[in-house]
Amino acid sequence: MTGAHSVAGHWTGGFDEAGLQQWARQLRDQLHQHVDLGLVFLTPQFFPAAQQILEILRIHAQIPVLMGCSGNHLIAQTEEIEADAGLVLSLCSLPGAQLDAMHFTQADLEASENTAPFWHAISGIDPAANNGWLVFADPYHLNVEGWLRQMNAAYLGHPVLGGLASGDHARQLCQVYLNGEVFEEGVVALSVAGEVTLTGVISQGCTPIGDTWTITKADRNFIIEIGNQPAYHVLARTYSELQAEEQKKARGNLFIGLAMNEYLEDFHRGDFLIRNLLGADPQSGVLSVGAFPRMGQTIQFQRRDAKAATEDLEILLQRARKQIGNRPIYGGCLCSCNGRGTGMFGIPNHDARLIQHRLGPMGLAGFFCNGEIGPVGQSNFLHGYTASLALFVSKTETPP
């Protein structure tokens, strides 16, 4: 699949130096413009040869900035390759973009003392000169949520999009890639600036049910009262008001949505951070949730299933298309949860095809993650069962 400014390809063979050289050159030839960025994703079979592969791709596809990570299942074009995935590479031409790539570690996080100036200094990126971050992180040796909290403080309101690498879970081993280097820990991060912005579509796979409410009493990860009523009673009433078929779908698939912006007059998809409903006690009326809700926060219960996830992605893609308007989309990176794909939807290529249908054609590459990263409101979060789509979009309708 090619767009005017990006191409993506899927290598199905094993490690073959001559074959990879030719394949990289052929992919490069499909892009009739200079390459600014390459995104690469490898399955664990390539771990021993990863550094050689990076060098082959950089040289023969003429890539000045190359980043990516390992993944057990990969995404290229309209395909979600869930078996024998091999290797995926996309090449993007980003007119007027300023790209700065770097690698952070757990040691950096511990040395930061939670200060924004530390991250400005270590990255060399002034918030005023940043339009967003694309990141791929190791889930085993980095406190990703802690790092995200600090990035939120250092780059308030700037989107951070990407995902957590997957690989050899038994050995807790995965890889992240930056140019010719292979790292088994930390996060690789790309600052996008200049005439290109990073636009995100974060589909958390849920549909709202019932009304919006206000949390009136909470303690740590417990919601005690909603609308001055026991929280469990509000949940039970919301469930009882569903039609029988909807009740059947909701059993075992109920979640909570926490509004991230209380200043909105109306709440819609994308305004809520979806988190697990961990427990519900009818005696005490308390709900246990996978977050730290606060008193006064707006809440809405959510249902997650294949139909809800399709509806959610469809609506968010249409909204993105409207917001982007006539500005060119140069390319995209899709980080999709390991829990999506055929296992959730019952059909292959669900997310990739829908994205290309609504926003393509573009060179689209990505992988299936151990967790997805993306913004809700002004802050960035680690998600589950989510499709995190990063789009490289021109700031203007006429590219420089």
Structural commentary:
With 400 residues, this protein is α+β, with helices and mostly antiparallel strands. The protein has two domains: 6-204 and 309-394, no CATH class; 206-304, no CATH class. Helices cover 25% and strands 36% of the residues. The protein contains ten helices and 26 strands. It has helices at 17-30, 50-60, 106-111, 116-123, 144-154, 231-240, 244-250, 306-324, 342-345, 350-359; strands at residues 6-11, 37-42, 66-70, 74-76, 79-81, 87-92, 97-104, 133-137, 160-164, 176-178, 181-183, 187-194, 196-203, 206-208, 213-219, 222-226, 229-230, 254-259, 272-281, 286-289, 298-304, 329-337, 364-369, 372-376, 379-383, 387-394. The strands form four sheets. The chain has a six-stranded mixed beta sheet with strand order 1-6-2-3-10-11, with helices on one face. Strand 19 (272-281) and strand 20 form a beta hairpin. Helix 1 packs parallel to helix 2. The longest helix has 19 residues, at 306-324. The model has no long low-confidence stretch (mean pLDDT 94).
What can be said about this structure in brief?
Helix content is 25%, strand content 36%. By secondary structure, the protein is of the alpha+beta class.
Topology of this protein?
Layout: E1 6-11, H1 17-30, E2 37-42, H2 50-60, E3 66-70, E4 74-76, E5 79-81, E6 87-92, E7 97-104, H3 106-111, H4 116-123, E8 133-137, H5 144-154, E9 160-164, E10 176-178, E11 181-183, E12 187-194, E13 196-203, E14 206-208, E15 213-219, E16 222-226, E17 229-230, H6 231-240, H7 244-250, E18 254-259, E19 272-281, E20 286-289, E21 298-304, H8 306-324, E22 329-337, H9 342-345, H10 350-359, E23 364-369, E24 372-376, E25 379-383, E26 387-394
Parallel strand pairs: 2-3, 8-9, 22-23
Antiparallel strand pairs: 1-6, 2-6, 3-10, 4-5, 4-23, 7-12, 8-12, 9-24, 10-11, 13-26, 14-21, 15-16, 15-21, 16-17, 16-20, 18-19, 18-21, 19-20, 22-26, 24-25
Helix pairs in contact: 1-2, 4-5, 8-10
